Amino acid sequence: MLKERLLTMDRAKQIEIYKELDEKILKVASSKAHDYASQDILSNFKTVSAAAKELGLNVTDPTNYALFMVLLKIARISNLINGGKRPNNESIDDSFLDGINYLKLAYCTYKDRKIELDLDW
Q1: Are 44 and 76 in contact (CB under 8 A)?
Q2: What spatial distance separates the first Cα and last Cα of the chain, rounded to whole Å?
């Protein structure tokens, strides 16, 4: 049987853990930024939020949120293909598959709501 020990963490250990986390976060952020944006590192957020607004997507709704994620995948794929970039993380093929999965999830949430509301659309 596994025994659990309660340890005391002092301020120095807390700071050490924070520094390790910060290094990992910076590494991931640096790596992923390449796949999502070019000159303006915020361009992906700006483009996707503008598209979501134009489409009237309310991300508090599960179907709309899944559709928002499709937009995010489209923006990533577009950045990679149109920028002639090789992805650092998820492959372009996987991004297409992920986008398809988000569309399927959007459809499932739509069907779930339709059943819940007993709509005849």
Answers
A1: yes
A2: 56
Interatomic CA distance for residues 118 and 121, integer angstroms: 9
Domain count for the chain, please give it: 1
**Measured at the alpha carbon of residue 80, what is the angle toward residues 107 and 47, in degrees to the nearest 5?**
60
Domain that holds residue 74: 11-117
User: From CA 80, how far away is CA 95, in angstroms rounded?
Assistant: 10
Q: In the structure encoding, which two tokens stand for residue 99, read together?
A: 């986008």
Is residue 43 situated within a structural domain?
A: yes
Considering the domain boundaries, does residue 5 fall inside one? no
pTM of structure:
0.69
Can you tell me the distance from the alpha carbon of 115 to that of 3, in angstroms, rounded to the nearest whole number?
Answer: 48
Say how far apart CA 59 and CA 68 lie, in whole Å.
Answer: 7
User: How does pLDDT run across 51-103, given as a tens digit for each residue?
Assistant: 999 999 999 999 999 999 999 999 999 989 998 888 888 899 999 999 999 99
Using CA atoms, how far residue 43 sits from 39, 57, 98, in Å, is: 8, 19, 21
Residue 4 lies in a domain: no
